[in-house]
Design goal:
The complex is a heterodimer of chains A (about 260) and B (about 260). Chain A has about 260 residues and is α/β, with parallel strands linked by helices. Helices cover about 40% and strands about 20% of the residues of chain A. In chain A, strands 1, 2, 3, 4, 5, 6, 7, 8 and 9 form a 9-stranded mixed sheet that branches. Chain B has a domain at about 45-150 and about 190-260: MetI-like (MetI-like fold). Chain B is about 75% helix and about 0% strand. Chain B has 14 helices and no strands. The chains are: A alpha/beta (about 260), B mainly alpha (about 260).
Chain lengths: ~260, ~260
């Protein structure tokens, strides 16, 4: 019995090792002949850039766009740790400036779009929220982004600017997870971007805040190629800043100037 | 026992591979310690974020370990001793959180016990009680991921136990519960300690299920691992300092308990 099973077992081992090696090899080589553009973009750009990448690939059949979405501060750490990217889109100027100062981004940044911070509620507004001051009501479940994340810094600045002390129940690490919780009605209100509301307008809506009392705050999105001389990256940046890119961004609730 | 021979020279293949494994575990720690901001360490560790996170982590992980023991020991006993139909299915169900990505567990908890969840919904309508975003949410997430470690450890010990001692106690007139308390429990003592410790350590390090189910709020639901995650993006020095605390607390407990843990029977 034992003598029979051992060679078989050894064979399995060999196959397993060979298959793993093949898989590893194919993963690490990837791509092939196509020009791959690796784009690191802020989480709030998830929908817009998924569309943009598809449009770019249609216009440039030989190119492939690979997208990596995360909170801008996560992307900053990835880039500082040497992640292989071609284009970086930040959700605020500060982090882009920091990466340029650190030498992790060499291209010239250009402001691509801006996004407005809004007080959002689930579509049926279970907490009956109609003013920014409602975020201080202790019986409501309120969410913001964590400090250090662009939408969190913006939200805290907005609240301080208007002297509102919120009764926060959770500080989410990125704006998409916050919007998700709100859409699932786990929260009653949250400070997110207008684009997040547009992206999920079946479940979310923005509370109309009196613009005279609450001057709207905006986040600006700079885009830059990681390397100065990278034709593929330059092509993608130009496409995003061009008419097609602008129309996609506007469609997803961003302001383009 | 009697045939055990002392090997004069351990095979070099085994020694090399074992050394490689030790190096593999050691290098990340070296990397972490190398990044520790020693000059700022005191300031960072006494900041309110770290103090609150440490207190919350210790409290929730200890409570979770205790709850795991209260529910998990009886469960382990039932799995080891009672002929149940579908016992293997129950065992698979109980060990599932060990292999499931914790974030999946957190999402499942949310769908069950969230404010709009299958069971959390009616609870909220009746009592206005919301489990997520509260310290109880953290504890529930911790118990979910930690209890399986205790159940597996204790069940293993119960299976390895010589049942003749229990039979003898029963034949001398001890009630079934009395046998369990006076004979079984003391005999699996070391494994029980190991199980509780493992569950506690798992709860202390828990991240995915907690952030998904309980959210993240300093002072209420932000445990040490969540603080590390948030600070990694804001202040790396702080993240490294908190990580050092986690490593230190875990190592101290694991080393202190090593005798009970490794030296079984």
């Amino acid at each position: 019995m034992r003598g029979d099973s051992e060679p078989v077992l050894r064979g399995h081992w060999f196959v397993a090792v060979a298959v793993s090696a093949l898989v590893l090899a194919s993963v690490s080589c990837g791509g092939g002949d196509e020009d791959v553009v690796d784009v690191f973009a802020a989480a709030s750009l998830t929908d817009a850039f998924t569309d943009l990448a598809a449009a770019f690939e249609r216009a440039h059949p030989d190119s492939e766009v690979r997208l990596n979405f995360a909170g801008t501060s996560t992307l900053r750490e990835q880039l500082l740790d040497g992640a292989d990217a071609d284009v970086f889109v930040s959700a605020n100027m500060a982090i882009m400036d920091e990466l340029i100062a650190e030498g992790a981004v060499a291209g010239q940044p250009q402001v691509m779009a801006s996004n407005t911070l809004v007080l959002a509620v689930p579509i049926d507004d279970p907490g009956r929220v109609d003013d920014l001051s409602d975020v201080s009501r202790p019986e409501l479940l309120i969410g913001v982004c964590a400090r250090g994340v662009p939408c969190g810094d913006l939200a805290h600045r907005f609240l301080e600017l208007h002297d509102v002390t919120p009764e926060v129940d959770t500080e989410e690490p990125d704006v998409r997870s916050l919007a998700r919780r709100l859409a699932d009605r786990e929260l009653d209100a949250a400070l997110i971007y207008r684009s997040d509301v547009v992206a999920d307008h079946d479940h979310l809506r923005a509370v109309r805040l009196d613009p005279d009392r609450y001057e709207p705050l905006e986040s600006r999105y700079p885009i830059a190629a990681i390397d100065r001389d990278d034709p593929g990256a330059a092509e993608f940046v130009d496409f995003v800043l061009g008419p097609e890119g602008r129309s996609v961004l506007e469609q997803w609730g961003f302001t383009v100037r | 026992m009697t045939t055990r021979r002392r090997l004069r020279r351990p095979p070099w293949v085994l020694v090399t591979l074992a050394a490689l494994a030790v190096v593999f575990f050691t290098l990340p720690l070296v990397g972490l310690v190398g990044r520790v901001p020693w000059a700022r360490l005191g300031t960072v560790l006494t900041s309110s974020v770290v103090r609150e996170a440490l207190a919350l982590s210790l409290l929730t992980s200890i409570v979770a370990a205790l709850i795991s023991a209260v529910l998990g020991v009886p469960l382990a006993w039932v799995l080891a001793r009672v002929e149940l139909p579908g016992r293997s299915v129950i065992r698979a169900l109980v060990t599932l959180p060990m292999v499931l990505p914790p974030v999946v567990g957190g999402a499942a908890l949310l769908f069950a016990f969230g404010r709009r969840g299958t069971f959390g919904g009616p609870l909220y309508d009746a009592t206005s009680f919301v489990l997520p975003f509260s310290i109880w949410g953290v504890i529930v997430a911790n118990v979910f991921v930690a209890m399986p470690f205790l159940v597996v450890t204790v069940e293993g010990a119960l299976r390895g136990l010589d049942e003749r001692y229990e039979d003898a106690a029963a034949s001398l007139g001890a009630s079934p519960l009395g046998v369990f308390r006076r004979v079984t429990l003391p005999m699996i003592g070391p494994s029980l300690t190991a199980g509780v410790t493992l569950a506690w350590a798992r709860a202390l390090g828990e991240f995915g299920a907690t952030v998904t189910f309980a959210g993240n709020l300093p002072g209420r639901t932000q445990t040490l691992p969540l603080a590390v995650f948030v600070e990694l993006e804001r202040d790396r020095d702080a993240a490294v300092a908190i990580s050092l605390v986690l490593v230190a607390v875990s190592l101290i407990v694991l080393v202190a308990l090593r005798d009970r843990w490794w030296r079984r029977s």
